[in-house]
Amino acid sequence: xxxxxxxxxxxxxxxxxxxxxxxxxxxxxxxxxxxxxxxxxxxxxxxxxxxxxxxxxxxxxxxxxxxxxxxxxxxxxxxxxxxxxxxxxxxxxxxxxxxxxxxxxxxxxxxxxxxxxxxxxxxxxxxxxxxxxxxxxxxxxxxxxxxxxxxxxxxxxxxxxxxxxxxxxxxxxxxx
Length: 176
Fold this sequence. Notes:
The structure is a single chain. This protein is α+β, with helices and mostly antiparallel strands. It has a domain at 18-122: LysM domain (Membrane-bound Lytic Murein Transglycosylase D, Chain A). The protein is 35% helix and 20% strand. It contains 8 helices and 7 strands, in the order αββααββααβαβααβ. It has helices at residues 4-15, 34-40, 45-51, 85-92, 96-102, 124-129, 141-148, 152-158, and strands spanning 18-20, 24-27, 65-68, 70-78, 115-123, 132-134, 172-174. It has a 3-stranded antiparallel β-sheet with strand order 1-4-5. It has a two-stranded antiparallel sheet with strand order 2-3. Strands 6-7 form a two-stranded antiparallel sheet. It starts with a helix and ends with a strand.
């Protein structure tokens, strides 16, 4: 039974790795074009228009509120002695209420040893522009640094990692 628990956790983490995020909007300004906005957010014009049905590129007006494709990726953290919701929110640059909501916890329920999800919001364009890697069993930060020709320091900074030796299968990392 003890061996089954880690396997179950890995399956759960892999299944919860990415989820639809809260909608993000762009309010158009003078000089904005659909083509330019699509490029800015790293999507095709067709994808941008798909998120904004009824939008006619030639009729773009200043002040229009347009939907921007966004996804939420999850990082994971095992609660350590001394951790609290406020310090973890600051460490991962996530609003405290969002951190607690993502884990369906109150600040008082944050227990040492608990694995919690850290919501990391990315515009689809940013995630498309940044290389990502889903951690597999056996991956290490050192191997990934060599594979993607980046430094360990960059991987740690890009992913707000507290302990570079603790990456978990299913975790999505920015690698470039």
